[in-house]
Description:
Blueprint: H1 6-15, H2 18-30, E1 37-46, H3 75-87, E2 92-95, H4 105-119, E3 124-129, H5 130-140, H6 144-153, E4 158-160, H7 169-175, H8 182-194, E5 198-205, H9 211-230, E6 236-243, H10 258-271, E7 277-280, H11 282-285, E8 299-303, H12 307-311, H13 320-329, E9 333-336
Helix pairs in contact: 1-10, 2-10, 4-6, 5-6, 5-8, 6-8
The structure holds iron/sulfur cluster (SF4).
The site of iron/sulfur cluster (SF4) has 12 residues, from loops.
Amino acid sequence: MSRISVDEARELWLHASDDELKRLAQIARTRFHEPKHATYMVMRIINYTNVCVAQCDYCAFYVLPNQEGGYVLSGDEVFAKIDDLLEVGGDLVAFNGGFNPKLPLEFYCDLFASVRERYGDRVEFYALTIAEFVYLADRAGLTHAEAAARLREAGVHWVTGGGSEILTEDFRKRHAKFKYTVRDYLEAQRAIVEAGLRTTATMVIGFDETLDERLEHLQRTRDLQDDLLRDGLDGLFSFLCWTYKPYGTAFGGREIPPQEYWRWIALSRIFLDNVKHIRTSVLTQNEDAFRALDYGADDFDLPLEDEVTQKAGATIELDLESLLAVPRKLGYTVEYRRAERPAALTA
Ligand code: SF4
């Protein structure tokens, strides 16, 4: 199957049947993965602070500085959450919180260094999202390269592509005008990879974005990956798409149906011919997420906690075996995947 253009992707989205999209996505999937085989991780998102000045209108999680209900987790609270995760067999933590003006980059470096020192390689962690990284570098007066080097010194291996939502300048102006530009975001992502860390791509659908905006997001992701790979860098490990949860947000709106999500996963699998893993979101789609494996996804997380999406209406099933029974019933073998150490950091 050859690379498709944005125009061809638009045509497929508008006119291809579900079966046709599924068929093409499965062909694209077999370039990287065995059919009917999927991988997963058990993870916990640790929301270390809910104080945030970014004021995205689609967020139900944040409180402003000095508003009631703001918190910052202590080191002991973070460790207790990681211990719980280890107890149920998980080994991946994603740190994610608000743009808290009282917490400088050094606060995070100390936190990450203490987690690495205490757990070594028993736990892998996504230290920040790219969005938080851009904020912290800016506040510290550091270039993205300098800030990425600080994280690396603190024992960080991964920074996720979170906070991208829809990567168009217009979307950001409409919904997240204090969250930096798309250009900042992509430059930071490149600096992270150049520092020898790994990163991922993400996307959130179901706001008021247009089809063209969604396609622009995919195009920017594919272009970035082309550039990184051409320069001999590790590139984006995966692409994770999830759906907007509208409850309790200023923007409001409705959830998109699972069918639309599955179709978008299929189109992403077909379009992103240079990204190995397409991940489906159990956090926002629950059992419906597994149907996306038929539409080209190959990997998923089983999350124990994420206050950001839970505040906006996500529900989390903690019976992991009953969740894993769903892809098995669909005919998939599922295998636990440990987070890889970036090639630049392997001795
Ligand atoms: S989505 Fe993140 S950056 Fe935006 S308001 Fe919520 S916590 Fe802050």
